[in-house]
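User: Working on a comparison across species. This one is 4-amino-4-deoxychorismate lyase from Thermus scotoductus. Can you predict its structure so I can line it up against the others?
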Amino acid sequence: MRRVLLKGEPFSEPLPEGFLYHGLSVFTTLRVERGRPLWLEEHLFRLRRHALALGLPYPGDGVFLKDLEALAKEFAHLPCFRLRFTVGEGVWLSEARPYTPPPLAAYEEGVKVALTPYRVHPDLARFKTGNYLPYRLALKEAEGQGAFEGLLQDGEGYVVDGSRTSPLLYRDGALLLLEGGLEGITRRKVAEAARELGLRVERVRLYP
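Assistant: Here's the predicted structure for 4-amino-4-deoxychorismate lyase from Thermus scotoductus:
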C-alpha cells in the first residue's frame, strides 16, 4: 500500500513515483493569443515524439485538445495565456496560467545574459523533460547577477541552451543556431522566417 500526504493532507490519487520524484515526464509550453494556440500541431508532435523516445505512453492528441477547449473557456477574458501539456507514466496534465510578454524595451534594446556553470544532461538535452533542475538553477544564477537569461553549456563547455529561451545569434549577416540544446519550436520558426527573408542560417557550436 502506498499513502501520500500533501501539506499534511491525504493525496487521494498519488502520482507515479517517476513522475512525482524523478522528473520522468516530458512537456511542452505554448502561448494562446486571443483564443488561438500558437503552433499547436508542432507542439503536440514534439510532445508525442519525445514521450515515445523516452518510453512514455502517449495518451493521444485528443485528450490535450479537450483540455485546451476547457481551459480556453476559463481564460477567455485574457488576451494571452500560457499553456503547458505534460506526459508521464500513465498520466497527463494540462495547465494554464496568465502570461505577460516581456516589455517592448526588451525587444528593442535587448536584455542582459549571463553564462552560468550549469550543464545540460548529455543524453537528454534535446528532450523537454521534467528533469529541469539545471535550467532552474541557471535561471536563478542569472537573476542573481541581474540578468534576464542564463546560458547553459554541454560537457565540453560549448554554449547550447538558455534557461528559459532558445538562444539565437546574429553575426556577420547570418543567423546562428546553437547545436546541442533543446529542439526549440520558436527558434525553428524564427529560422524559417529568416530564410524566407533571404538571411543565411547556420548551425554552429559556440565556445564562450
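For your comparison, note: The first strand starts at residue 5 and ends at 6.

User: Helpful, thanks.
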